[in-house]
Design brief:
By secondary structure, the protein is mainly α. Helix content is about 60%, strand content about 0%. It comes from Methylobacterium komagatae.
Length: about 250
């Protein structure tokens, strides 16, 4: 839908405050008429500058903590305890996912627990507004312009709508997929459904090189797949540790 549109989309001027957002949005919509559907561009036209998104983007201080501090702050012990219980009560689901994708329950439960507290906190920020705000914001405009294009495609497919709400950076569902990840790795279901979210997460890890039966601690073959999930080293190591503690139960 958007092939070859990157250089043209960059013509819309990024900014670092709310002041230029409406003008940027008009320019982006004008540049993408004929590349995106009218319905998806109408949905984009209704977005607003998300101050909650900018606040979250500028406030990711936990990734600068030590591993022990990070795990304590994120409640690692609670995630392990709850993860072990969920592994038992959802054994059939995790067995079917492992058979299909080769990913054991531990890393999936670690990601699920870390991302949303097992679905308790999925966010309440308008998804299109969040992604549009970050596409406009100069800090990572190119990256989130790609996410915005993916989001507009998902609107056309009925997977996102103008009213979809999720986390502050535009992530949705139990394991917090950005729009481009929904497009590339979603297995077809609503990511607010546990089974669809976990199978999509396993599909993501498999696509990032997960090898059935191999280890996933630092230095082991599957750790690279966890690195694909999140760029923060402290997050990667925490997922590996929490996942191992769940799988060893």
């Amino acid at each position: 839908m958007f092939g070859g549109a990157l250089t043209q989309a960059q013509a819309a001027q990024c900014g670092n405050s709310a002041g230029g957002f409406e003008n940027w949005k008009r320019e982006f919509i004008a540049e993408n008429r004929g590349k995106a559907s009218a319905a998806s561009l109408d949905a984009l036209a209704g977005t607003t500058y998300s101050t909650a998104t900018i606040s979250a983007d500028r406030g990711q201080h936990s990734f600068k903590l030590s591993l022990d501090q990070f795990m304590a702050k994120r409640g690692a012990a609670t995630i392990v305890k709850r993860g072990r219980a969920l592994k038992r009560t959802n054994a059939a689901l995790f067995d079917s996912i492992e058979q299909r994708y080769g990913v054991p329950p531990g890393p999936l439960l670690a990601i699920w627990g870390m991302e949303t507290g097992f679905g308790a906190v999925k966010g309440n920020v308008n998804t299109l507004s969040a992604v549009a705000t970050l596409a406009y914001d100069c800090r990572r405009s190119e990256y989130f312009t790609d996410q915005l294009r993916a989001a507009l495609t998902l609107v056309d497919r009925g997977i996102l709508s103008a009213s979809t709400r999720g986390a502050a950076h535009g992530e949705v569902g139990h394991t917090q997929f950005l729009p481009k990840n929904v497009l590339n790795y979603g297995t077809g279901g609503d990511l607010n459904n546990v089974g669809a979210a976990l199978s999509s997460t396993a599909n993501f890890l498999k696509a990032h090189g997960w090898q059935r039966g191999a280890g996933y601690q630092p230095g082991e073959p599957n750790f690279a797949a966890l690195q694909g999930w999140n760029a923060a080293q402290v997050y990667q190591k925490a997922i590996a540790i929490i996942g191992r503690q769940i799988d060893q139960d």
